[in-house]
Amino acid sequence: MKKQLKKQLDLQFISSIGGGCFGKVFKIVHSNSKQVYALKVFRKNEKINKQEIETMQSFQNHPNIVRFIKDISTQEIQGYLMEFCPFGSLSSLVQKNSKFLEKRKLRLQVMKDIVNGVLAIHERGLVIQDLKMDNILISSDFTAKLCDLGLAQIPDEQENVTFNNDIFYLGLIFAELGFLEFAELCSQKDCQKRPSILEVAEKLKNLDDGL
Fold it and tell me: Which residues form the signal peptide (predicted)?
């Protein structure tokens, strides 16, 4: 695979930076421009792979969704290039950088970024289904960006695919970042009492940033 990508796209592998049940992610560099990218290479599941590529591509200009660069899929490989986020995942940041949790203003901005990304996806009529800190990346300017949208789909109550489910998992992220009032609001057991993502965004706008 490495030789093929080197030959076809002039890309050089630097390191493996992540992976999951659907594929692996590599840090790579373009040989001529020296531009660094992230490359996601899928395991063989054509339906999910195609869906993720199409979904990521449709949001490529949104500031809080990882920017899609190029579909590099061939008969042998399925995957795509995306922007490289040097601070890694939000879960990794929380685990490795205790000072981050001490900075309320920074935590609040990250939370606003996440909500802004979720809002864009919900407004497109899609449920994320895989909203978690592992799937939120932190860019070079410390902007939080959603990634891994391969499971996103239109709501289906019979399959329990609802916007309320995303709100519940958003509440878990609020809890991890220390915003317990929002965590309780979003993670209510009665899903009908959970706010919409638009209501969450409005409440966040009115939250004092601690300055």
Answer: none
